[in-house]
Specification:
single chain; alpha/beta; D-Maltodextrin-Binding Protein, domain 2; nine-stranded mixed beta sheet; two-stranded antiparallel ribbon; 17 helices; globular; Bact_solute-bd_prot1; SBP
């Protein structure tokens, strides 16, 4: 996409003679490619971002705000929940290009076998279940399953992969997850109830045995093998399931209201402050061009677009595009603008692991989540100050 965009930009741009150097790297090499090179002649000017580190880069002053690039038409064409993800301290630092939306994927045939037709969505729509509905569904699924190696719902805690989805489950009984200052606030009646619920699902055999030793990928593979009725999944997982012959639909994570939640993140372009006003001007001109070029915007159809206009134009051509587009307003982004999110990821899953294994009670797990995760966030702030 960026190669095509750079060529089209150069063809029509007459302010400067622009040369693009586009580098690709593994996400594990971000520190080496972005952070370590910042302030050197090798530093990037534009950064196609989908990183937990964006809040830290913004705090350090490495990124430039992009409000002057975002016109009213572009702002109105992207859901407010997506803009919120990319806004830090009141400033837009990433212009979203496409998104990844995670919901629950559900085996329709297993639902039908359990007599749960009333909970099935019409056509290719998203199912919205209250927490009470969800518990009824899981109970009926469990009762209908006769194979001891098949289960109703996912659960995992072996590592930090998919931890954001477990956080979203903690919202099922009204826990907001964070307080007004962005600190973890799971040690509340609602948070403790959600942790109790997770342990109850485990104790009742609704989730796989020994879930504390499973990782997300294990659960996805169980779903592909039709040994799991409900599992977290994104559009790629949905296509994989369909290609394996599974009759699948999606549902939001449960909530008391019944609207439910999906977890979402977006990728887009950030502008690094290299101190060169000419380069900054050209970079902003490139961003304006990219987001106004209809041909380049078609590249977003390879994943999930963030722009309503593109979704509306192609919703009848691409499976599930409309359903995901209509679901954007239910998105939660658990990272928010917290620093040291990797530090949070290093400790959160351990508390879920110890809850499932019986080493911690729900009350102890709630206190440990708040203590360890907030310590990680504070460490992020401390490291920045140093």
């Amino acid at each position: 996409m960026l190669v095509a965009a750079s060529e089209r930009f150069r063809e029509q741009y007459d302010q400067y003679d622009v040369e693009f150097k586009i580098s690709r790297y593994n996400y594990l090499d971000e520190k080496e490619q972005i952070a370590d090179k910042y302030g050197t002649p090798e530093a990037a000017d534009l950064f196609f971002a989908g990183s937990y580190n964006i809040p830290m880069y913004a705090e350090k002053g490495w990124l430039l705000p992009l409000e002057d690039v975002v016109d009213e038409e572009l702002r109105a064409d992207i859901d407010a929940s997506i803009w919120k993800q990319n806004t830090i301290g009141g400033h837009v630092y990433t212009i979203p290009f496409h998104q990844l939306q995670n919901t629950l994927m559900v085996n329709r045939s297993m639902m039908q076998a359990a007599g749960l037709q009333e909970y099935l969505p019409e056509g290719d729509q998203v199912a919205h279940w209250s927490t009470e509905d969800f518990n009824n569904i899981c109970g009926e699924l469990k009762d209908s399953i006769t194979d001891g190696n098949t289960f109703a719902f996912m659960m995992y805690a072996a590592n930090n992969q998919g931890d954001s989805h477990i956080m979203t489950l903690l919202r099922a009984y009204g826990c907001r997850l964070f307080d007004e200052n962005g600190r973890f606030a799971v040690n509340t009646p609602e948070g403790i109830r959600a942790l109790t619920w997770i342990k109850e699902l485990d104790a009742q055999g609704i989730t796989p045995l020994g879930a504390e030793n499973l990782e997300l990928l294990d659960c996805v593979n169980l779903f592909y093998n039709e040994q799991l009725a409900i599992c977290m999944g994104n559009l790629t997982n949905l296509w994989d399931s369909r290609n394996r012959g599974i009759d699948v639909f999606i549902a939001n994570f449960p909530s008391l209201s019944g609207e439910g939640y999906c977890t979402a993140s977006s990728n887009g372009l950030c502008l690094l402050d290299n101190g060169d006003e000419n380069k900054i001007r050209v970079a902003k001109d490139f961003l304006r061009f990219l987001y106004s070029d209809e041909e380049i915007m078609q590249y977003t159809l390879g994943t999930l677009p963030v722009r309503h206009s593109i979704i509306d134009e192609h919703q009848d051509e691409i499976w599930m595009l409309k359903a995901y587009g209509d679901n954007m307003s239910n998105a939660v982004y658990n990272v928010q603008d917290n620093l040291n999110w990797q530090g949070v990821r290093d400790v959160f899953y351990i508390q879920i692991q110890e809850l499932l294994s019986g080493k911690k009670s729900p009350e102890e797990a709630a206190a440990a989540i708040d203590g360890s995760c907030n310590e990680a966030l504070e460490l992020g702030g401390y490291l920045y100050e140093k």
